[in-house]
């Protein structure tokens, strides 16, 4: 019996999504005679029934292309922005899934996408997920599509910042993406030889960083590169954040909820400029001129690395093998050299954070990198 497969890409885009679509599509059509349709812009396209039949014509020539030919969105099935309000549209999505007589929906995405896929699964939809995120924060897989490319881009930026920091005897504080985890900043910081690396998992003290920079100055090195993860916080802010999070959990159903949510919003808005404030603080504490570089979306753009193309092709084709065996409700996870199915229910809501004793942390400390603590 021919299997009918739907696929969508959701959440922030990453290089390698097209390689995954190509791997999935080619293996499904050529290897197993399945039929495959794509939904545009993540779960929004599934709700709106906006589709494209995937075949040899649109699946070829996309291996090396960044972004996603399907487009993406961060819209969630149960909280869909609809004309000024947020509505639960899961039932409409189930209807559209049935309209196309789909056997399975493949959702390629990060943490949010996995949560959404699990919600659809509870409504009776068969799902298979493929992990992608530049943040490397997905639980249950060793690797996710996009991280390697972003790591390469961020490392290249840290490399380039060295010469200009050196010429001007400046501190350059470079902000690297990663959401609430420090993998990208830690990896790029180590690979690029940053002098200071700040990650969300290790709250920092500006004074400790300033001392490390002054030590370098005394040793004749009058420039420093500080790689800071966008989610990194100083100790005081981390304590405040933990407190608001706790209050939020307690206020969930009470009349205080809105007030605590407003506190969190204000906190987050203030955090958006924390890298700039850190650079100013370091300038004051060290007397060295400092500059900020925010890498931003350049880390998510352009051609995927060879590693990500390979990973995406492995995951996409393995997903088809699982679909052929009707293994549903799983993430197609990369484990060592192999690929394994991991029950969605065992990973949803969990996050892969950098453990304090991770080998990367030990390596960074062993080469004398200051981690802000
Ligand atoms: O999850 C990927 C990521 O690029 C994070 O590193 C970053 O915090 C976030 O997405 C940015 O989100 P958006 O694309 O919604 O601006």
Task: Tag the structure with descriptive keywords.
373 residues; alpha/beta; Rossmann fold; 4-stranded parallel beta sheet; 17% strand; binds 6-O-phosphono-beta-D-fructofuranose
- Bound ligands: 6-O-phosphono-beta-D-fructofuranose
Looking at the overall shape, the CATH architecture of the largest domain is 3-Layer(aba) Sandwich
Q: Given the structure, what is the number of helices? A: 13
How much of the sequence lies in strands comes to 15-25%
Query: Distance N terminus to C terminus?
Result: 60 Å
DSSP summary, beta strand count: 13
Structural class: alpha/beta
Ranges where pLDDT stays below 50 over 5 or more residues in a row are none
Describe the protein.
This protein has 2 domains: 4-146 and 304-346, 3-Layer(aba) Sandwich (Rossmann fold), CATH 3.40.50.450; 151-300, Rossmann fold, CATH 3.40.50. The radius of gyration is 22 Å and the shape is globular. Helix 1 links the parallel strand 1 and strand 2 (35-39). The strands form 3 sheets. The chain has a 7-stranded mixed sheet, with helices on both faces. Strands 9-10-8-11 form a 4-stranded parallel sheet, sandwiched between helices. It has 373 residues and is an alpha/beta fold. Helix content is 44%, strand content 17%. The chain is built from 13 helices and 13 strands. The mean pLDDT is 97. Helix 8 (206-218) packs across helix 11 (274-286) and helix 9 (235-250) packs antiparallel against helix 10 (257-271). Residues 12, 74, 110, 133-135, 177-179, 230, 300 line the site of 6-O-phosphono-beta-D-fructofuranose.
